[in-house]
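Hey, resending since the last one bounced:
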Amino acid sequence: MKTHVKVCGLRRPEDVDLCLELGVDLLGFNCWPKSPRYAAPALVESLVARVGGRADVVLVVVDATPDDVLRLLGQVASAGATTWIQLHGGQDPFAYTAAGSRIIQVLRVGGASPLPAVTAERALIDVHHPDFGGTGRAIEHEHVEALRPRLPREWMLAGGLTPSNVGDAIRALRPWGVDVASGVEQEPGVKDRGKLSDFVRLVRETETIDAN
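The structure tokens again:
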């Protein structure tokens, strides 16, 4: 079974190009101004223009209103990429259907508040943290297993993934996809070519082993 790879926190043209070269499936751009990986709208627009139709684009937002999302989508609509919105902050995905975009609903495990019902067609499981991802903190596998009955078919695993542990995580949990940011970086927003190449290679090698 194919494991989709999402690389998040992209800010540099060379990192976008590397993702495309490696066959990364989803490219994530952080549109939350408080993130150390924040990409301003003009930067997102220029980076998405490099993607074309070679990968899907994910715009990551935190507590964004439907109007905010519509504005973001309007800025990248002409680039020709399929665009997803990744919702952090507990919003109801149904409130964003008018935007015409696909939705990724984030479930942050380990916090004090109960997790919301999963209503989007795609979900992402991450560790609860005030910085909304990209912290390098690993998720406990038993937390994922407890959530599994509530998850849609297409769900992604995030939280502390690196080249050294992604293969084990895929074999143990069988996610539809894996999401990485800090695990393939030199510093926030600057990807490490070797780490990113190794990460994608190890995902694909795990697929091959499982297929045999």
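The beta strands are 4-7, 26-30, 56-62, 83-88, 102-109, 122-127, 154-157, 177-180, 185-187, 190-191.

Sorry for the duplicate.
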